[in-house]
Amino acid sequence: MAKLEKTPEQWREQLTDEQYRVTREKGTERPFTSNCDVQDGQGIYHCVCCNAPLFENEHKFDAGCGWPSFDRPLGAQSVDKHSDASHGMTRTEVVCSHCDAHLGHVFPDGPPDTTGQRYCINGVALDFHADE
């Protein structure tokens, strides 16, 4: 699938100020502010920028960190990972593979009984589609 590319002006027309800051400028929402933590039942989280399906609700868990956490993406091609050396530390950034929207970071401290991964994702970067 070809990358979706838009100008900064086009993204600004589509997104709220907070969505733009997080997804296009690699920002982070404040912890414990996402409504994604209260979603229950079956559903898929899509990229707020391009509507690509990214994460399943059944793979979400409460990591206590203040951001929605998943133990895996929907599929291997759903997200891309990049090294991130900002803020004086080395982390692995997670972006939407279709539009390069910054989603969050992945850490190796997830549930050991599943993948052991914690995809710590900004809720403002996601749009929940129930019953998918």
Strand count: 9
Please bin the fraction of helical residues. 10-25%
CATH topology: Metal Binding Protein, Guanine Nucleotide Exchange Factor, Chain A
Please tell me what the overall shape is: globular
CATH top level assignment: Mainly Beta
Q: What's the total helix number?
A: 2
Structural class: alpha+beta
Mean pLDDT score: 93
Biggest β-sheet: strands ordered side by side in the sheet: 3-4-8-7-6-5
Reading the helices and strands in chain order gives: HHEEEEEEEEE
Round the Cα radius of gyration to an integer and report it.
14 Å
Number of domains: 1
Low-confidence stretches: none
Beta-strand proportion: 25-35%
Considering the protein shown, what is the CATH homologous superfamily? Peptide methionine sulfoxide reductase
CATH architecture: Beta Complex
Major beta-sheet overview: 6 strands, antiparallel
Instruction: State the separation between the terminal residues, measured CA to CA.
Output: 21 Å
